[in-house]
């Protein structure tokens, strides 16, 4: 799936990239980086296509996704936290 096809799926699901990212707990920067590549990763493409199909069928997919209890992945020491440790 190309980035343009991905965005069309999001439009069909009546959501935006920021809302999609918040829902699936993925960095918006991560998703935006796929603009430069030839395709969207399979898992992201499947999610977007399923959201569009579910929306077209009148299913509120957001409730199902919220029930999964997804968590944002973070790497230890990312950002300024590690730098502050060295300043002490």
Automatic annotation (TrEMBL):
Superkingdom assignment: Bacteria
Full protein name: Uncharacterized protein
